[in-house]
Structures are given as structure tokens and as C-alpha cells.
Amino acid sequence: MRRCFVLALVLVTVSSHAVTKRRAVAQPSAPKRLTSWRIEVTTSGGFAPAVRTSIALQSTGNATLLDFLGRPLCASSVTDSELASLATGVAQARPESWAPSYVSASNPTGCCDQIRTSVKLTRAFSDHTTATNQSYWFDVHPELPADLNALYDTAFGAASTRSRIEPACLSDAALKTWSLDITEDGGAGYRYHRVSLDSSGNVFVQPNLRSGACRYAIAESEGRELSDAVLTANAAAWSSSYVRPENPNGCCDQIHTVVRMSRNERGPDGAAIPVTYTTEWYSDHPLLPADLEHLHERLLGNDSSLFARFGAQCGPLF
To answer: How would residue 6 be classed by pLDDT, with cut points 50, 70 and 90?
Structure first.
């Protein structure tokens, strides 16, 4: 009897270990889930590429309109219905099957002046992996995969997020467009110095009348600082001239300075309209408005100005 009891106890123990081992078997991992995505539709080439926009859309609902160089023009948001359509398009897309390009075999470079359109889809998954797929085509192209075409239409087509936000974005962007041009000429021995700056950070310098202008670029941080100075200047209060009435010709051998500033301002209907302000003075001028004096000093008026930085690189100063 005792022997039977011991045997039963051993069997129970072995069975218990077997159950424990079965319970310790790892369960299959859950399939990876899509956690976020980003769609970029960009265009390039064609006639007047600078007038076209591109767009970047994210699963967070953020939308960024881009210029033809890929620089942000303005930030916006997608609507709930747009986000739902985009999310459905991404979920149904099979970008792994997209070809790198859909171009005509007889015209692989898009001649002549066709627009190149590119769609880039980046996806992140629950297992911390990411996948990026991209394809492009020209105006004349073979048939696109249905999922790629649907994603393009939703993001960039005639009734897309881009078409909705573009008008307002371009209107706001236009208000940040400007140019500033300053020339100095005259003086003993005569000199002609000119420097121009625009809202894209391009600097054009002409060190004398014999030389052509040279183009340079300034850092983005400096460009923002100068842009703020131009856009906040109370140019409407500037006088058209700061020439002394008793010496209207700048006698004798004074330097003549001319400032021209063009920028877009909001009109009565809210639309951006171009406005140009021009003023001038000679060396013996009265006190200038502080904002005008600041702009003159930054571009041409002192040893740390843009002209002082780039002028000699372009050519002789006299």
C-alpha cells in the first residue's frame, strides 16, 4: 500500500512538471501595428517651378505647405475627414510593390519641361521599425498603381488638403516677401557701392560701376533678424527725402544714398499688395528715423555691414 502511494506521488509530481513546462512555452508575438505615418508630395521642373508648392502631411494632423525648394511656407492642420481619408489611404497602400518610378520608356527624363511629381511615404510600426517608400513620375506617365494614385489624389489632387490650405498659406507667405536695395555714389574720387537683400536671404553686391553684381547668401538666423527689421519698419512714416533744402545737390562731393524697400502689405480686402518705399539723403542729412538708420547700417553703413563683408570679395571698391 505504501509503495502504491509513493508511485502515485511520483506520477503527480512528473505530471505537475509537464504542465509547468507547457505553461512556460512563449506565446506568439502580436503582429506589428502601424503607429504613425508621414506623406510628402513634391514637384519640380517644368515651366516656372517657383510658383508651385509641395506638401508634407503627418498622422498627427499637421500639414506643412512647402515651396519649390522644399522650404516651409506655412503650417496648417488637416480636417478630421481629411485625416480619416489619408489614414485609410495609408492603411490600404502597399508601397512595397511600388516601382521606384513610373516614367515613359521613350522619355525617361521628362523632356521637355514636364513636371516631376514625387510621393514619399514613411511609416512607423509598433515594433519600433520604420519603412520609407518613394516613387516619382512625369506629366506623361504609365498608369499608376491604384493605391499610389489614391494617396496622391487625397494629399495633392484637385480636392485635396493642399488645394484647401494653399490659398491662405500663399497669402500669408506673400506678406513675408520683401527686398531692400541701397546705393551710395559720389564723394571725393567718386565711388559707387550697391547692396541688395531679399527675403530668401540672397545678397547681391556691386562694388563699383565697372563690375557686375555678385550673389551671396546669409545664414538663416541672420536672415530672420533682418526680415523682422524690414517687416516691422514703419516705412510709411519715412520722408521721401532727407536732403537739406539749403543744399539740395549735396555740395561739395558728398555721398548720395538711395534706399528702396519693396514688401507686400495687406490691402483693404485682406489680400497682399506690393508697396515700394523710396528715400534719399546726402552726407549732411538730418537725423534719420531709427528703423531706417538701422537698416542702412546693417546693409551698407558700417564696418560690419553686408557690403563690408562681401564687397571686396566681389571686386575693387573704387
So the answer is: very low
Distance CA 122, CA 257 (A): 53
Q: Do 308 and 203 share a structural domain?
A: yes
Tens of pLDDT, residue by residue over 89-138, are 999 999 999 999 999 999 999 998 899 999 999 999 999 999 999 999 99
Cβ proximity of 244 and 284 under 8 Å: yes
Question: What is the domain extent for residue 295?
Answer: 177-314
- The reply to whether 205 and 294 lie within a common domain is yes
Q: Which of 155, 173, 191 corresponds to the end of one domain?
A: 173
Same structural domain, 41 and 135 = yes
Dihedral angle computed from the Cα positions of residues 70, 74, 80 and 86, in that order, rounded to the nearest 10 degrees: -10
CB of 188 closer than 8 Å to CB of 238: no
Confirm whether 92 is domain-assigned.
yes
Q: Are 309 and 301 in contact (CB under 8 A)?
A: no
Give the separation between CA 258 and CA 260, rounded to whole angstroms: 7
Nearest in space to 79 (alpha carbons), one of 162, 173, 187? 162
Does pTM surpass 0.85? no
- Nearest of 71, 78, 105, 270 to residue 163 by alpha carbon: 78
Last residue of some domain: 157, 173, 189? 173
Helix (H, G, I), strand (E, B) or coil at 202: strand
